[in-house]
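hiii so my PI (J.) wants the whole complex modelled not just the main chain, which honestly fair. so below is everything: two entries, each one labled with what it is. i double checked the lines twice but i was tired so who knows lol
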Amino acid sequence: GAVVSQHPSWVICKSGTSVKIECRSLDFQATTMFWYRQFPKKSLMLMATSNEGSKATYEQGVEKDKFLINHASLTLSTLTVTSAHPEDSSFYICSTIPITGGQETQYFGPGTRLLVL
Amino acid sequence: GEDVEQSLFLSVREGDSSVINCTYTDSSSTYLYWYKQEPGAGLQLLTYIFSNMDMKQDQRLTVLLNKKDKHLSLRIADTQTGDSAIYFCAESISGGYNKLIFGAGTRLAVHP
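here's the output for the full assembly
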């Protein structure tokens, strides 16, 4: 099946620093990638939809200046948490839709666990 | 707004069947999904059903959809300890980009 990777798998950083998380589709191209956030024992909340070559679409309540998304190529999207604070600690998961896939095909990465001290 | 609800916990004995239930609100959903998440991992797509179907079977998995009641269920036959995980129900909502709304997840515990 389609493989999506995320890097890093976990990161610990100091408050005030910025953290970049990468999401890559390894064996397919994707025009659309999604970024989700998952709190402990909670559901996934969609943060933004990222389209290659254009600005990301953010969900209501998600600060676009706080969570910078760049979708520079058909296989890579990045999420940068700027000036991270302890409340940004969470599990961040990306998902992608292959160019050749139908609406039903959405593949998830393994997630990145962020801990801000 | 859109909402997906699931019971939070289910415990079954190994070899029995598990049934995980989900209700959703958006009647225009085109697809409904079941994902599995093991501890510390991402989501694995288990199965999905198109909204004009009422049942789909895939090996040990059976999905039932009652569109009138907006109720979705996942039945796992012959449940094994490896099935212990969190199961998320999700609906795709209209408006493009295959936006998914997830339930809170049902934690399935399988005991001997």
